[in-house]
């Protein structure tokens, strides 16, 4: 069941940006409230269901799950762990008893006022059949008592009382270790129950932490790193010199998104700039620096005197590599949750545009890596300012401001790919219109042009035809046991559907969304053909879905593999992205050969002198 938790988190994080980790954009207070509730419903429902499932297993390992989640919570959110300990301490017995009595998760969530689930249920989930009005009534009554206990804790006052909190936490840890010790002995039924309770406590702790974290919308005072706009949240170890390029692969908007900074104390040193070899330093962090002894020339001017570009990506979750690892189906296999959370469930290190980790995706797994292969001087020269939920309005308002860019930067090969969110709306009438799309694209381009170095290139990509999702997935079985169609309906019912216009049983809606997507694509195409900019040359390419399907057909690969199994919505990072990178690259070599530049004839020398160029 853990996957469902993940899916929900993701879907909501992705598309409704309830927890945009530092950048939360929700139009109105009412919408905020509504979405928060729906989000809580899915999370609460799922995690409590997990607890139930585990309680009834022979060897429940909720402790492990909880440990992993709690451990994964970054240090700078630790205050929430304390709050959560307090909550659990106060309400423990009642909550555990409720769970052991098989109350339906949804009812507990509703009664605890953690969520209002609109009465929705996921068909064929493990709890089907257990539900009854009587349960619901009892749950509400008993949980009323829980709430009373929670209120009696007077949390705000307690959290200010450091000493008291520390003592409480200490007690909890001690208790936990006692129970672990008992595990070694022979157990009777009562003992077993006790242990299960402990495990449930641990899980609840994780659950409450996640609820609290997500409810607070991840705007911690000391978050560190960069927010979705790419701006530093506060002075931190993530980007000490505030040049937007982070010095590590940790924290928010870390070096998975942009080439790693090789001097995080000096804002004049970072990827993406012209390197004049000042003081024999590596100014642009491409690993080429110093003076060649024979000629007295800098290595940078000797070896990197071809057009070196950076790769830039404007986009959405599909272009940032949204993904939940399938291994997480099994709680024991969860790993790196901290990294994944801080990367907003995206895997930009593997994405088709700026993916950089060649041991994960191969030397040809992304456009950046292919560019780097041609010209090793491009090492670390990339910026991905896409974010989950990205749509055309975010181009100007969020993503351009997140760029590190002046007219003196390295020219870029850029991609603009908002492939669906503009038509993924609750109502067809809310979809972005062609006029809006045109106006938002043009105003973004005009601002970007002023900031861009001469000789920059930008490929506008069309929207996808999202009907592939329903067509391929609806009658397949989701890992939860329901069909994808059932999952889509549950998501719609509970208000957490990331794309109610495409992920729906209603063919009229799906067709209308695809029609609008096509209309918007045509606007982008026309702009690329008619708008002349000073520093940016524009191009246009349809989203290459048909070519991806051709690839599948040719290689006898079932097309559903192009879609993420967990969410039934995104292109799959471990499969589709690599195909996409290859198709886009081939398109560039045929249609825009001058955009990708010549092969650097000094590549061998660079390798000889600079080895791995400082790594990643
Ligand atoms: C680099 O290219 C420029 C212009 O093409 C040329 O003037 C310069 O001499 C070149 N530098 C080296 C070290 O080859
Ligand atoms: C979890 O890991 C084990 C051991 O590596 C593996 O056998 C199992 O298939 C994994 N579970 C999932 C769901 O991937
Ligand atoms: C790149 O991916 C490999 C393979 O998963 C991993 O071992 C390595 O740590 C990654 N590199 C970095 C710098 O994270
Ligand atoms: C799903 O439906 C399609 C036709 O709409 C059919 O070709 C396919 O075999 C079905 N798949 C499953 C798993 O039932
Ligand atoms: C639930 O399971 C039944 C029987 O396996 C199936 O017919 C039905 O379509 C499923 N419902 C959903 C929403 O997946
Ligand atoms: C399908 O969607 C269209 C457009 O939103 C709507 O007018 C129609 O009533 C819907 N059909 C069903 C069966 O819900």
From TrEMBL:
<keyword id="KW-0378">Hydrolase</keyword>
<keyword id="KW-0732">Signal</keyword>
<feature type="domain" description="Saposin B-type">
    <location>
        <begin position="37"/>
        <end position="124"/>
    </location>
</feature>
<dbReference type="GO" id="GO:0009104">
    <property type="term" value="P:lipopolysaccharide catabolic process"/>
</dbReference>
<feature type="signal peptide">
    <location>
        <begin position="1"/>
        <end position="20"/>
    </location>
</feature>
<dbReference type="GO" id="GO:0005509">
    <property type="term" value="F:calcium ion binding"/>
</dbReference>
<keyword id="KW-1015">Disulfide bond</keyword>
<dbReference type="InterPro" id="IPR008139">
    <property type="entry name" value="SaposinB_dom"/>
</dbReference>
<dbReference type="GO" id="GO:0050528">
    <property type="term" value="F:acyloxyacyl hydrolase activity"/>
</dbReference>
<protein>
    <submittedName>
        <fullName>Acyloxyacyl hydrolase-like protein</fullName>
    </submittedName>
</protein>
<dbReference type="InterPro" id="IPR011001">
    <property type="entry name" value="Saposin-like"/>
</dbReference>
<dbReference type="InterPro" id="IPR039676">
    <property type="entry name" value="AOAH"/>
</dbReference>
């Amino acid at each position: 069941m853990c996957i469902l938790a993940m899916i929900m988190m993701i879907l909501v994080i992705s598309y409704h940006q309830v927890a945009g980790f530092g950048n939360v954009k929700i139009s109105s207070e009412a919408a905020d409230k509504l979405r928060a509730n729906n989000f809580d419903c899915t999370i609460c429902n799922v995690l409590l269901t997990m607890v139930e499932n585990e309680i009834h297993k022979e060897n429940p390992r909720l402790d492990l799950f909880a440990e992993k989640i709690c451990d994964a919570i970054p240090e700078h959110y630790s205050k929430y762990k304390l709050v959560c300990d307090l909550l659990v301490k106060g309400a423990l017995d009642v909550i555990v008893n409720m769970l052991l009595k098989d109350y339906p998760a949804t009812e507990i969530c509703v009664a605890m006022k953690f969520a209002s689930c609109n009465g929705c249920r996921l068909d064929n989930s493990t709890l089907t059949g257990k539900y009854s009005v009587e349960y619901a009534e009892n749950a509400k009554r008993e949980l009323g008592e829980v709430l009373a206990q929670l209120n009696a804790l007077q949390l705000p006052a307690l959290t200010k009382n450091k000493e008291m909190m520390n003592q409480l936490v200490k007690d909890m840890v001690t208790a936990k270790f006692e129970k672990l010790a008992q595990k070694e002995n022979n157990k009777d039924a009562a003992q077993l129950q006790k242990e299960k309770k402990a495990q449930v406590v641990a899980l609840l702790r994780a659950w409450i932490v996640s609820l609290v974290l997500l409810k607070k919308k991840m705007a911690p005072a000391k978050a560190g790193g960069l927010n979705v706009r790419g701006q530093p949240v506060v002075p931190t170890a993530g980007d000490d010199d505030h040049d937007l390029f982070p010095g590590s692969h940790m924290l928010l908007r870390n070096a998975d998104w942009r080439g790693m900074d090789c001097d995080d104390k000096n804002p004049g040193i970072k990827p993406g700039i012209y390197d004049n070899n000042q003081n024999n330093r590596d100014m642009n962090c491409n690993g080429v620096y110093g003076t060649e002894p024979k000629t007295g020339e800098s290595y940078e001017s000797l070896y990197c005197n071809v057009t070196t570009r950076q790769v830039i990506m404007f986009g959405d979750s599909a272009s940032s590599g949204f993904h939940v690892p399938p291994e997480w189906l099994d709680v024991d296999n969860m790993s790196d949750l901290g990294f994944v959370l801080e990367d907003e469930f995206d895997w930009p290190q593997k994405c088709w545009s700026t993916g950089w980790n060649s041991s994960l995706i191969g030397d040809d797994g992304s456009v950046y890596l292919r560019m780097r292969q041609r010209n090793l001087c491009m090492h670390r020269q990339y910026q991905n300012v896409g974010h989950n939920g990205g749509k055309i309005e975010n181009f100007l308002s969020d993503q351009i401001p997140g760029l590190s860019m002046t007219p003196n930067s390295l020219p870029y090969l850029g991609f603009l790919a908002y492939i669906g969110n503009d038509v993924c709306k609750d109502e067809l009438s809310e979809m972005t219109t062609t006029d809006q799309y045109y106006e938002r694209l043009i105003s973004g381009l005009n601002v970007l042009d002023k900031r861009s170095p001469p000789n920059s290139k930008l490929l506008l990509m069309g929207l996808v035809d999202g009907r592939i999702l329903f067509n391929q997935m609806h009658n397949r079985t989701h890992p939860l046991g329901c069909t994808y169609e059932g999952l889509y309906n549950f998501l719609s019912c509970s208000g957490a559907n990331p794309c109610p216009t495409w992920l729906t049983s209603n063919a009229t809606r799906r067709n209308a969304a695809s029609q609008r997507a096509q209309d918007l694509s045509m606007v982008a195409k026309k702009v690329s053909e008619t708008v002349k900019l000073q520093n940016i040359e524009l191009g246009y390419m349809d989203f290459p879905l048909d070519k991806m399907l051709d690839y599948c057909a040719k290689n006898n690969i079932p097309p559903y593999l192009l879609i993420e199994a967990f969410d039934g919505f995104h292109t799959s990072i471990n499969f589709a992205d690599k195909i996409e990178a290859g198709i886009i690259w081939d398109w560039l070599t045929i249609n825009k050969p001058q955009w990708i530049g010549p092969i650097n004839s000094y590549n061998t020398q660079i390798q000889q002198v600079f080895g791995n160029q400082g790594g990643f």
